[in-house]
Structures are given as C-alpha cells and as structure tokens.
C-alpha cells in the first residue's frame, strides 16, 4: 500500500486477510451487528467490464444502485476513483488507481458514519482511538484487548516509535518540554470556541525517521458554530477500500467524545483526502461492494460522561442498530 496507509484505519498486515477479519463486537453493538442482506446480484453474478483508457478492465458503473442514503459520499468516492482514477505504480508493486484531492461531509446528527455495505470492525476502531488518547506507542495494550492491527509494524519489544499517540499527547518542543495537544485543544474549545487554531497534528517532520509508520491521517481541526462541534481531517494517503471506512468512524467517534467533554452537540465530520487510491488487487471487491444497497446508519450512544477525555473505556460506547452486508475479504499490499 502506498506509504503503508492502506491499512484498515491503521490497517493490519497479518497473515489473515486483513480487511474483514471477524472481531467480536458484541460488547459495543446492540442489535443487528451480524452480516445483513447481501444486496443485488448482477447478471451471471458479475458486472460486465468495459475497456478503460489504461487497458485495465472496469465495470459498468451505471448499473449500480445509487440511493442517496447511508455513506453515499464514500461510495461515490469509490466509484469516482474506479472510473476516473489514474493508474499509478506504488511502493508495494501492487499498483493503484488514484485521484488527488477529494472531500466528503457527514452530518453526525443523522447517524454514526459506519459503512454498511460491508461489515466494519468496531472493536478495533474504539480500542485504537483509546490507545491514541493514552499517548501510547507500544502494541501490548492493544494485544491485551484482542486488537492486533499494529502488530506488523512493531519491533520485537512492541514499540512503534513516536507515532500518533505520542504526537497527540507529547509533542516535543525545542526546549525539551512536551505539549499535550489533546488537552490544549479541549481547553481552547471551552475558552475560545471561535478560535481558528483548534488543531492537532501528528505530522512531526523531525520525528518521522523514527516512526515505524508515518501518519496517514495527519492533521485535524475543529470548528464550533451554533452550539455544534465539527471536525475536519486531512488524510494524506487513503486506501479507499480498506482504510477509509475505519478512519471516518474513528474521527467521528473522537468528535462525539470531544463534543461531550465540551458540552456541545455534534455537527459535521469532514474528510479530506490527498492521494485517494484503490489497489489493483481490490477491484473485484470494489465491484462487490458497489453492487450492494446501503443500509440505514446506526446511532452512537455514549453511556456516561467521564471527568476527562482520557478516562473513557471501551464499555462506554454502544453502536445501536448497526446493520451491514457481509464482510468482504481483501489482501493487504505489503
């Protein structure tokens, strides 16, 4: 994957197909978390390809259902890249189809933006976000909670270098001090919600050589208007099939948490991508996913309000009414 960012959020590279390994989400889901209907099937089970200028085959996109419903902006991006993207080489040798620059907007008042056209691993999303908020850089805590999505990058001691959590919570200054960007962010939202500096960055150029994986979702900003908190993420490298569904859900969850901590309602989550790509060996899976009809969005229920953003537990979150189509397995480009 380009820049190793075709991860499933921070995507795993285990020997098991990574996109849709079964993870028990029973602790966080209530009702209909199992695979749902499989969606329409095209003639002979596949869509007829048509020639593309690059010589690659592609599908008849006009045959796919396009209801303006749950997660439609994500499906539109997938269609757009599949049909109009430029075929490019990449570091892994797999090859990608890519566009540069795209934006999606999700109204968090309308539901929690969790992809429904394939099953998404909620447990990994929540535990990884809590791990980031701890400022942690060692995979042991994730492993202790049954999450292995960072294992392939960790060294023998489980260390990953100064990645997301370190930058969020302990950004180093030239004087040798450290800045807790998350704590500062929440304090600023409470003190000056109209500020245009409500920003957290994981892209620390000086630390990148020591990171096992440079940040893909690198920079995010918050915005307060009419009593609602919105968030915009910039993701420099976006594996649309494997990684982006995970990233959307993770930052939507973070927005809900910070809104609760600052006594605001949620507004929009805006996702902005740089290199937005599909791997060539995911095209069949893309066809399968685009042939499915999106289902209604679930709701997020946060069961309590902790004293601090850093005190949330996995059990505090409940996804209500998540219905999804079956998982779609896909290889991870290494």
TrEMBL record:
<feature type="binding site">
    <location>
        <position position="239"/>
    </location>
    <ligand>
        <name>(6R)-5,10-methylene-5,6,7,8-tetrahydrofolate</name>
    </ligand>
</feature>
<keyword id="KW-0963">Cytoplasm</keyword>
<protein>
    <recommendedName>
        <fullName>Thymidylate synthase</fullName>
        <ecNumber>2.1.1.45</ecNumber>
    </recommendedName>
</protein>
<dbReference type="InterPro" id="IPR000398">
    <property type="entry name" value="Thymidylate_synthase"/>
</dbReference>
<comment type="pathway">
    <text>Pyrimidine metabolism; dTTP biosynthesis.</text>
</comment>
<feature type="binding site" description="in other chain">
    <location>
        <position position="247"/>
    </location>
    <ligand>
        <name>dUMP</name>
    </ligand>
</feature>
<keyword id="KW-0489">Methyltransferase</keyword>
<feature type="binding site">
    <location>
        <position position="121"/>
    </location>
    <ligand>
        <name>(6R)-5,10-methylene-5,6,7,8-tetrahydrofolate</name>
    </ligand>
</feature>
<dbReference type="GO" id="GO:0006235">
    <property type="term" value="P:dTTP biosynthetic process"/>
</dbReference>
<dbReference type="Pfam" id="PF00303">
    <property type="entry name" value="Thymidylat_synt"/>
</dbReference>
<dbReference type="InterPro" id="IPR020940">
    <property type="entry name" value="Thymidylate_synthase_AS"/>
</dbReference>
<dbReference type="InterPro" id="IPR023451">
    <property type="entry name" value="Thymidate_synth/dCMP_Mease_dom"/>
</dbReference>
<feature type="binding site" description="in other chain">
    <location>
        <begin position="277"/>
        <end position="279"/>
    </location>
    <ligand>
        <name>dUMP</name>
    </ligand>
</feature>
<dbReference type="GO" id="GO:0006231">
    <property type="term" value="P:dTMP biosynthetic process"/>
</dbReference>
<feature type="binding site">
    <location>
        <position position="333"/>
    </location>
    <ligand>
        <name>(6R)-5,10-methylene-5,6,7,8-tetrahydrofolate</name>
    </ligand>
</feature>
<dbReference type="GO" id="GO:0005829">
    <property type="term" value="C:cytosol"/>
</dbReference>
<feature type="binding site" description="in other chain">
    <location>
        <begin position="236"/>
        <end position="239"/>
    </location>
    <ligand>
        <name>dUMP</name>
    </ligand>
</feature>
<feature type="binding site" description="in other chain">
    <location>
        <position position="91"/>
    </location>
    <ligand>
        <name>dUMP</name>
    </ligand>
</feature>
<dbReference type="InterPro" id="IPR036926">
    <property type="entry name" value="Thymidate_synth/dCMP_Mease_sf"/>
</dbReference>
<keyword id="KW-0808">Transferase</keyword>
<feature type="active site" description="Nucleophile">
    <location>
        <position position="216"/>
    </location>
</feature>
<comment type="similarity">
    <text>Belongs to the thymidylate synthase family. Bacterial-type ThyA subfamily.</text>
</comment>
<dbReference type="InterPro" id="IPR045097">
    <property type="entry name" value="Thymidate_synth/dCMP_Mease"/>
</dbReference>
<keyword id="KW-0545">Nucleotide biosynthesis</keyword>
<dbReference type="GO" id="GO:0004799">
    <property type="term" value="F:thymidylate synthase activity"/>
</dbReference>
<feature type="binding site">
    <location>
        <begin position="196"/>
        <end position="197"/>
    </location>
    <ligand>
        <name>dUMP</name>
    </ligand>
</feature>
<dbReference type="GO" id="GO:0032259">
    <property type="term" value="P:methylation"/>
</dbReference>
<comment type="function">
    <text>Catalyzes the reductive methylation of 2'-deoxyuridine-5'-monophosphate (dUMP) to 2'-deoxythymidine-5'-monophosphate (dTMP) while utilizing 5,10-methylenetetrahydrofolate (mTHF) as the methyl donor and reductant in the reaction, yielding dihydrofolate (DHF) as a by-product. This enzymatic reaction provides an intracellular de novo source of dTMP, an essential precursor for DNA biosynthesis.</text>
</comment>
<feature type="active site">
    <location>
        <position position="216"/>
    </location>
</feature>
<feature type="region of interest" description="Disordered">
    <location>
        <begin position="1"/>
        <end position="58"/>
    </location>
</feature>
<comment type="subunit">
    <text>Homodimer.</text>
</comment>
<feature type="domain" description="Thymidylate synthase/dCMP hydroxymethylase">
    <location>
        <begin position="73"/>
        <end position="334"/>
    </location>
</feature>
